[in-house]
Amino acid sequence: MAVSVWITIVYAAITAMLGVHMMVANSFIAAIAAIAACTLCFVGAADFVGSFRARHAINYTAKNLAATGVLATILIASGIILTIASGLSLDLFGVAVGGVYWALCGVVAATAATREEHGIALDRFFAG
Residue 96: CB partners within 8 Å, gap ≥ 6? Predict the structure, then answer.
């Protein structure tokens, strides 16, 4: 498997384990909010990065990229706000990591994992 797939799997697996731990230790609602927040950050970044990398293949203009960037910014900001509201925090290998930092790790993971072909596939999916 490609490295991009492994990056996505590792981030999703750690986020899922964190959500299960929060469900058991704290609150079911807070855990669902934390998982949704991390997902929003990952999807927002992946949407923009995929569109940006495939911009020549799908003939995106600057206006298209700006609209995608605004959507990605809204998704990422919503994820960070939801992370703060849920009280997400984790202890990763003995190091305390705040929820906002973990959500931003999702942005970095999506940026590293998304390729041009993902943007092309996304465009084809929405084009019908």
Answer: 89, 90
Neighbouring C-beta atoms of residue 127, cutoff 10 Å: 7
For the chain, the domain total comes to 1
32: containing domain: 3-127
Q: What is the pLDDT of residues 53-90, one digit of tens each?
A: 988 888 888 898 899 899 999 999 999 999 998 888 77
What's the whole-model pTM score? 0.87
Residue with tokens 């997400």: 88
- Name the 3-class secondary structure at 2: coil
Please enumerate in sequence order all residues whose Cβ is within 8 A of that of 120, keeping only pairs 6 or more positions apart, or say none. 54, 57, 58
